[in-house]
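Journal club prep, notes for RB
We'll compare a predicted complex against what the paper describes. Inputs for the zinc ion case:
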Amino acid sequence: MKILLIVIDGLGDRAIAQLGNKTPLAAARTPNLDYLAKNGICGLLKVKFQGATPTSEEAHFSLFGYNPERYKIKRGIITATGAGIKAQKGDVALRGNFATVDKNFNIIDRRAGRIKSPEPLIESLRGIKIKGVRFLLKSATEHRLGIIMRGRGLSPNISDGDPFYGKLGKRARKIKPFDKTQKAAFTARVLNEFLEKAHQSLREHPFNKKREKQGLPPANYILVRGASSLPQLPSFKEKYSLKACCIAGKFLYQQIGKILGMDLIKVRGANGKPNTNLKGKFKAARKALKRYNFVFLHIKATDTLAEDGNFLGKKEFIEKIDKNLKPILKLKDTPIVVTADHSTCCALKRHCSEPVPLLIYGKGKDGIEEFSERACQKGKLGKFEQLKLMDRILKPYPHYQVSGVGVYKN
Ligand code: ZN
């Protein structure tokens, strides 16, 4: 069995007046995606999320059939393992951002001017031990870092220090325990102490003094989030008996693939940006299908363009994806699945909860003429949970009719 899953990040959207009341996907000229929809079956996926808005990592694990709630998958463990720290049972992992704060801990810059090469700062924080808990730190590109707390009696049930773009205020927040256990209280206390110590040390660091002289924001604080422990989950191979690989330009998606035991295929020029090497990625996918049963191909820029509110850019990038789909259309006996992890609404400049369009090519037809949010509403697959996608892909098409999945009526 061969399957190609193309995840176009943040593809779904709301209608935009300037696009003639169409979404960027509906407004884009996409003959190849339309061909796949016309010769495939369509539907809408309900996105799984626990917080205020969907996150890419939760949504991806859900797409692959892993319930993020059950496995407690959060950004911390993804970033830390991705940065190359080997997590152990009992560890608590965090995602950190080097940030700039004033003396009242008001956040001036969440990313300390997207600081490049903060290694000297990370080096200066290594080896800090508080109440028997060691802190392991590694750079995870630019301002990001992976942090692991290692010691006895730790719990991932603690709050974030990052207030996220002012949604929770503009000040860096103290870490609080989420439950009444001693472990959570201890973890929060130790982490607060570490953050305070780190702040004092970073503030005085010559690297930051130099930045200040150059008029650059000093990286004098670490905003942490996504506390999590090592998830105990079956690999993709164990779960589905499929040999899988991942083609993604961005670190996060490569790490998601890695956590699921997928092989990583690197493509030159695949950078997760609008100028990414789409042609190279699709070519690599076609080649990889000779050796793998399942190819996960991730495309990022739709999401980032929408987060910038750039609806025209998003529409044009979708057209670019479509143009590069040609080599894929010639694949034989390979179901092709095209969908998104979540919607990203240009009007809101953030991830949003709208269901995402889905097409499965190679498993029958349902008379849908084009690939858009609206057209997919009427598709035979109906509207269903992201977590069920893998089941739908793997089971033969007639099954769905028997299982009573109806047409989604709005
Ligand atoms: Zn995403």
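Talking point for the session: Residues 397-410 have pLDDT under 50 and may be disordered.
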